[in-house]
Amino acid sequence: MEGVAWAAHKYIMHGFGWGWHKSHHEDTEGIFEKNDLYAAVFSVLAIVLFAVASQGHPLIGAIAIGVTLYGAFYFIVHDGLVHQRWPFRNIPHRGYAKRLVQAHRLHHAVEGKDGCVSFGFLYAPPVEKLSAELRQRGTVAAEKRGRSASPVNKAPTIH
Q1: 10 and 61 part of one domain
Q2: Which domain of life is it from (predicted)?
Q3: How far apart are CA 3 and CA 7, in angstroms?
Q4: What is the pTM of this model?
Q5: Based on the number of CB atoms within 10 Å of its own CB, is 93 exposed (0-12), middle (13-18) or buried (19 or more)?
Q6: Quick one: pLDDT band at residue 83, thresholds 50, 70, 90?
């Protein structure tokens, strides 16, 4: 599922679907942002898959379960941990969770839809690799412009 989400993020959300996803890369006020419409779309997709599965298609049922579980993990990990959209705050200081947060900060370090790195939601390449990729591209980080576009309102670090 992560591969499908990676491709959807890179080619749909950072492609023709940028109109919705752009809100995710900008400071927004309120509980919801336009990007949250993607969760609604994927929820409807899961419901349709479950309906098809109920007509005797167990493989489609397995896909529906996968989409649903991935959505739940996305909600908990990406929205909750990475973007701190929960009423409690927990910023990880080591391990896998820290790498996810750092990689997503680097994803948000690029202004606009082009030139971003790290399109996964539950997997992140090593931060050093992502930083090197941004340096190689000459991508200007938000910290160089004096503003933060990171998930938890801290300037991304690019070594």
Answers
A1: yes
A2: Bacteria
A3: 6
A4: 0.80
A5: exposed
A6: confident
